[in-house]
Amino acid sequence: MLEITEIPCTLKRGATETGCLDSAVRAICPLLGIEPDDIVHIALRRKSIDARKKTNVHFMLSVRVELEPSIDELELLEHVDPRECRRVRAVDPNEMEFPPRVAPAINPRPRPVVVGAGCAGLFAALTLAEAGLSPLLIEQGDDATRRAHAVEQFNRTGKLDPLSNIQFGLGGAGTFSDGKLNTGTKNPAHRLVLQTFVDAGAPRDILWDSKPHIGSDILPEVVTNIVSRIESLGGEVRFRTRLTHIERDNQGAIKSILIEHEGHEERLETHEVILACGHSARPVFELLQRQDIMLARKTFAMGVRIEHLQADIDRALYGTAASHPALGAAPYSLVAHLPNGRSLFSFCMCPGGEVVAAASEPGGVVTNGASLNARAGRNANAALLVNITEDDLPGTDPLEGLRLQRACEEAAFELGGGEYRAPAQLLGDFLKKRPSTGAGRIKPTYPCDVTWTELDSTLPPHVIETLRAGIPLLDRKLRGYNDPEAVLTGVETRSSSPVTIVRDRSTCVSVNTPGLYPCGEGAGYAGGIMSAAADGIRCATAVIEQMTS
Questions:
Q1: Are 357 and 447 spatial neighbours (Cβ–Cβ below 8 Å)?
Q2: How far are the Cα atoms of 137, 359, 419, 460, 494 from residue 491, in angstroms, in the given order?
Q3: Given this model, what pLDDT does residue 89 score?
């Protein structure tokens, strides 16, 4: 099989999969010296937007083609124009698959348990189920339907359910934050993850879009279908069920766990626990510390959400092509490196989306971003973040970063005036160090209302200083970013976990608790939906090897 890259495609043709493939065939036949009939199969692998020249915005494609058996593909490559050979290569047609079902053991072990039904936990449980190990997946939050109701009630009334909210419940935090699937790594598991999402109801274009997303309106159905697949393979999924204790033997290995459901506690015998608890599972981190399971600090980031008009972002990135329907709402990714050694960067950019109320503890305000699949909202929003390093924290307690997050969230709650109103400030006022009194042409989308004020007291001084120094630098990369009427809403504190649950690099097992497999974002080993899902597959594969060895 051959892969051909850097195939230009007009916006008109690139609006559909069929149009993309037609453009690809027209381009690769003269490139390879073949006829269209020589192509047995062609598949779109990547589609990106080339907007380097605003007068010629177009798509760039990559495809894979299978040729007639009579054609020697390696010999064909030798005759490609030397100036074009970097665009054509032979590839292995085989894709990564879930591990096969394992043979029943003579002395079977208790079933493995997966804690947390975010993407790491879902894919860990699915991998175990595909192998025939009948895992139990527990999640302290609700299924997708009940969780959506809990989120809607919180937005409407301010009544927070600490167990089921934007952070907790089926699908994890990613379910209500746009479902962005782009990643900076090339893990072979990523294609398997994308195909699994498509099989569960996600749109097919995530298989080739260079910046794929599912949307918060579609993801609940997708993750529900993955649960159904786990159950059909012999797995069990329990919602409203929390991990409350880990029991270990004299060698420190797991022998059982205690779980709690609606006030009833149950002991489960198990020797393998995949802990995929998510980056906001603070009670779990505190439980692990009490039980002397090794934790460590890690760098994380905090900041604010910024909102612009999406139309302004579209024009800045696409010029006169901004209104073309094939392009959709424009995303961006920005970073500014400051002379003081700090950096400011955008994160979780949501085109045509809204800022969401993401609190999971009473008395704290947390922001995040989300958008529906169509990304048709009036505003663009993104987190603007600054790293918090180990040296920024006092003492040596591994949970010190968690305490800083909580303190900032409580400060934002107080400054907002209670009832989960968020403090907000116009960018122009923030840069001039003066409080805001109301919105301009850009209206905030945070659902629990905002209190116009100044944000300095909600975040560490170095974060505020870096925001002030860095935002004007971002305007050099994206014209208009420094709009004085852009809205800053605080605080964004949950971009990643402040804690690492230390594990062995090769086995994925906790360094001092055999049988415990820290997994995903909450454990410090992932940074988004794709990497979390891939880590879930990796940890589950390690469990399979342990249980069948």
A1: yes
A2: 32, 10, 15, 11, 9
A3: 95
